[in-house]
Design brief:
Layout (H helix, E strand, L loop, with lengths): L2 E6 L7 H15 L2 E5 L4 H4 L4 E3 L27 E4 L5 E4 L2 H10 L4 E6 L1 H12 L4 E5 L15 H22 L2 E6 L6 H9 L4 E3 L7 H13 L5 E6 L11 E4 L7 E3 L2 H13 L3 E5 L11 H20 L4 E6 L2 E6 H4 L11 H8 L7
Parallel strand pairs: 1-2, 1-6, 6-7, 7-14, 8-10, 8-13, 9-10
Antiparallel strand pairs: 2-3, 4-5, 11-12, 14-15
Helix pairs in contact: 1-9, 5-6, 7-8
Length: 361
């Protein structure tokens, strides 16, 4: 009998519970035990945060958003912030304690579900000797090693539905609506939802945009008796000078830039340059919530079942990846090596241009 521990790290995404469901059911079929580590690695720091997962505990959770064991995106065990006696924040490495607890509890494998940051932590634990299998999760769909990540399809569906609803109010008031969606370095959500939602302009990180080109598109609409416009902008989109709008640095003085605000910046520029009534909307965490689509639900279950098969085969230090139409194992080192960017020669980008969508260049 094997003992498996499963964790969910980073931002939540629709489909996390479906992975947990598939792992628990697949392990139960083999007579294995499964434990959930609450809030990332907290369960492996504090035994009280470990929870045994039986089939009855996961019944029906595949349809739920979020994660029943919680997640955290500020809990890097190799660089954990702690407050010293002087009230100062210091960063320490507590990975040895986690590894010791993992071994003391008799776990045979850790199934780590997460995006590039969480999978990088999993890779480091793998190098320290922990048997780890990664499951790719990010609504940004920006992991190069897998054709698709779960959560992306649901996020796109949410953004597209929002655009559909904005068309009627924008048309009623002859307004320009600027919609900011997630996408730090990759514009997949903006591109997919923008095309499907009938946007007039789509601004993505891969294409530095000239705001004058965006305004020209909006004014061209007016010449064709369309007095409103929809602009979709990824949070990491850059202007022609390579500038990214941000809210500053992350908490605790981290160097990572906190994105957000580019939607309002674009709206202000359009308002000033065209004189049109322009409003902005940030979809934000709406894209992370809700029940997963059929595609994401099925993909998440396939990832979970494939992860358990890798445990059975003893293939550790790898991430399960979709290589349509099958699943494959990719080393964790390869999985986190590079981000997947929008191919500017792809059919989707060509389609956007051919149907008259402005990409800002």
């Amino acid at each position: 009998m094997k003992k498996i521990v499963i964790s969910t790290g980073g931002g939540d995404a629709p489909g996390l519970n479906a992975v947990i469901y598939a792992v628990v059911r697949s392990c139960h079929k083999r007579g294995w035990e499964v434990y959930g580590s609450r809030n990332g690695y907290k369960g492996l720091l504090n035994m009280d945060e470990l929870v045994r997962l039986e089939p009855e505990d996961v019944e029906g959770i595949y349809a739920l958003g979020g994660t029943i064991i919680g997640s955290i995106n500020k809990g890097d065990p190799f660089n954990m912030p702690v407050e010293n006696l002087a009230g100062e924040i210091q960063f320490i490495d507590i990975s040895d304690k986690i590894l010791n607890n993992f071994q003391r509890m008799g776990f045979d494998c850790h199934i780590a579900i997460g995006g590039d940051g969480s999978l990088e932590i999993a890779r480091q634990f793998s190098e320290k000797g922990m048997p780890v299998i990664g499951v790719p999760k990010t609504i940004d769909n920006d992991l190069e090693a897998t054709d698709r990540t779960f959560g992306f399809d649901t996020a796109v569906a949410t953004a597209t539905e929002a655009l559909d609803k904005l068309h009627s109010t924008a048309k009623s008031h002859d307004r320009v609506m600027v919609v900011e969606v997630m996408g730090r370095e990759s514009g997949w959500i903006a591109l997919y939802s923008g095309i499907s939602g009938g946007a007039d302009a789509i601004l993505i990180p891969e294409v530095p945009f000239d705001i004058e080109n965006v305004c020209s598109k909006i004014m061209d609409n007016t010449l064709h008796e369309k007095d409103y416009a929809i602009v979709v902008v990824a949070e990491g989109a850059k202007n022609s000078k390579g500038q990214v709008i941000s809210k500053g640095e992350g908490e605790l003085g981290r160097s990572e830039v906190v994105l957000g605000g580019i939607g309002e910046w674009v709206a202000a520029e359009i308002r000033e340059r065209t004189g049109k009534d322009t409003r902005s909307l940030v979809l934000g965490h709406l894209q992370r919530g809700g029940s997963p689509t059929t595609f994401d639900r099925l993909l998440a279950m396939r990832f979970g079942a494939a992860a358990v098969r890798l445990v059975e085969q003893g293939v550790f230090g790898h991430m399960v990846a979709l290589a349509s139409p099958t699943m494959k194992a990719v080393s964790l080192a390869d999985a986190v090596r590079s981000r997947k960017k929008v191919d500017l020669e792809s059919d989707k980008v060509l389609t956007a241009r051919e149907i008259g969508i402005c990409l800002g260049d």
